[in-house]
Amino acid sequence: MFKFMSKKGITLSLSAVLMMGSLVGCGAKTETNGAASATPAATTAATASAKPSDTPKTELTGTITASGSSALLPLVKQAATEFMEKNPKVTINVTAGGSGTGIKNVADGTSDIGNSDVEPGAEYKDKGLVDHQVAIAPFAFIVNKDVKVENVTKQQAADIYMGKITNWKDVGGNDAKIVLVHRPDSSGSRTLVKTIILDGKDFTKDGITQENSGAMKTAVVGQSGSIGYVDTPYIDDTVKALKIDGVAFSEENIKNGTYKLFGVEHMYTKGEAKDPAKAFIEYMSTKEFQGKQVRDLKFLPADLLKK
């Protein structure tokens, strides 16, 4: 038998149902608000995790001036071309003038980099110059192709440049006058020859003087019976390179100590190098540049003689 509720009972029951529905609705709303309030925190965490940990590198800009050694010039020019391609907002101006000029310019602050085949003299001891060694350059005596001599001893080469031997017949060649081609006093190439071959003695004043290595090679090519000296990047089939004491220049002969006429190539800065000059010197010192471009241009890597 069914029992019927009174109107009062029905009213109370409906109120209870509505109250439960309201509580359920409030609970759902609370959960939704909780999810919404968590969203910004989650977004922030995701953004933080996606953010790079390293600060992006600043693009290099500015101008670099490098002057000095004409022996080193081919290598510096090649490096400058490549570096400017990789860093289009950097300009590098490279000039020659001789090692002495490069050292003076960087000491005076007129060049950012001073290129040199030799170390600075005592007068630059307190100028704060910092040495960056970038290559080794083999040097050789070159002669006009009409000279019938393939080899000279160290003593013969010294006597030729001191004016004691003046005819090629005295060293096994034709009866022909020896025409000397010199570099100026500011030249590192001249200093190397004076130090290594002449043992510090003075050159004769006879002969002609050329301002840079390229001009010296051109003079030897154009003058019968002539002799000069350049680093090996300038040697081609228009001239003949002489052996010294029967030894030709080569990487192996420099390493084993049998070929003596070579120089360490320096790039000096006044104080520690700063960008963009610092980055440029570091580029020339990379394993890739030392291993390929340095050898392609007939220089040798800077660390060749390091043990």
UniProtKB/TrEMBL annotation:
Residues 58-285 form the PBP domain. Its main location: membrane. GO terms for cellular component: plasma membrane. Gene3D superfamilies: Periplasmic binding protein-like II. It is found in: Cell membrane. Residues 1-27 form the signal peptide. SUPFAM superfamilies: Periplasmic binding protein-like II. GO terms for molecular function: phosphate ion binding. It is a lipid-anchor. Belongs to the PstS family. This is Phosphate-binding protein.
